[in-house]
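INFO batch 0412 | record 1 of 1 | parsing
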Amino acid sequence: MSRPSKLHEPLQATFSQVLGSIADEQKPEVESYGTRPFLKWVGGKRSILSELVARLPEKYGTYHEPFVGGGALFFNVQPTKAALYDVNFTLVLTYQAVRDDVEKLISLLKMHQRLHDKAYFTAARDKIYTEKDPMKIAALFIYLNKTCFNGLYRVNKAGKFNVPMGSYTNPVLFEEDVLRNDSKVLQGVTITQQPFTQLEVAREDFYYMDPPYHKTYDGYNGGGFDDEQHKKLAELCAEIHSAKAYFMLSNSDTPYIRGLYSKFHIEVLSASRSVSCKAAQRGKENELIIRNYGK
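INFO prediction complete | emitting tokens
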């Protein structure tokens, strides 16, 4: 999707003028399932989840998450109308497997749990690229995610998963109740592989953006997420604002990100980071929550 840059143009209306006319559609109320992410995911939002939930708009249409990752906010909110996206094809396939046939997935995971050792892990890391059955690919993806070092998802330039096995004594691949409850919440949810640049924007909808953070780990798909990608994402957020919809974005607290979103509402949070392989480099760091609504 081609978008002219709007970042250096003045916004045509204040936030209250743009968003004040949104229809009085209440935030969906749903049956609460005991859900949480079924994957480990670098940059997962569980440590700041209460802060994100507290900042959701009161009223919106469809919930969109273009960088779904582990889906911590989605599984907490449990929206009745939702669309999830990610550029990672295998991740998207895995979400679809949880939604569409969770019992078969559980059966395959039990087999991986029983057979797990270093040789099996190494073979599985190669097999995921030759396997043709989508359900088996999904089970391999969860298996590798729960047994690799630090739950890290990283691929090389050829797109192949290259994280070594972790030193877990008895890794737990899955919890049956969590997978079944996650499957219930995913029923009726659109799950699509696509880059954020292809996102269609709709008036009154809500978009939560959790991209690879600026100046931190960006090796999820072998292509990286550089300054130009962050600029394109900021242009998308400006488009969402112009369309009288809502966005909330999480990112690093860097001068570049502050500059891209200077016309929007920026808040600073202290959050745990665990991306680094070195324990000494992990800990609390400031990050930003950016919105086009709220005070």
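INFO post-check: Residues 1-31 have pLDDT under 50 and may be disordered.
INFO record closed
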